[in-house]
Amino acid sequence: MFPSDSPELALLSGSSYFELQTTTHGGRSLFATTDIAPGTRIYSCEAPSVHIIYRDYRKEVCAHCFAYSASDHAPSTVGSSRTWSVKWSRADAATAWFCSNSCKDSWELDEASALLMVVDTLLTKGQARTRKRFKSPEEELKVKFMLPSFEPDDRSITQKVIDAAWESGEALVASGAHLTLYYSTLHIEDMELEIARSLAAAIVHRYCDEHLSPSDSTSQTTCNRSESWPQLLNLQTNELCNIQTRPYMLNAYLRIYVFLSNTLPKYLRKYTSTVREVLARDTGNAFGIWDGDRRDEMMGWGIWVSASYFNHSCMPNVQKRRVGRELHFEASRRIHAGEELCVSYIDTDLPADQRRRELEESWFFTCRCLRCEKETTAGMCVRVAS
Ligand SMILES: C[S@@+](CC[C@H](N)C(=O)[O-])C[C@H]1O[C@@H](n2cnc3c(N)ncnc32)[C@H](O)[C@@H]1O
Question: From which domain of life does this come (predicted)?
Answer without folding.
Answer: Eukaryota
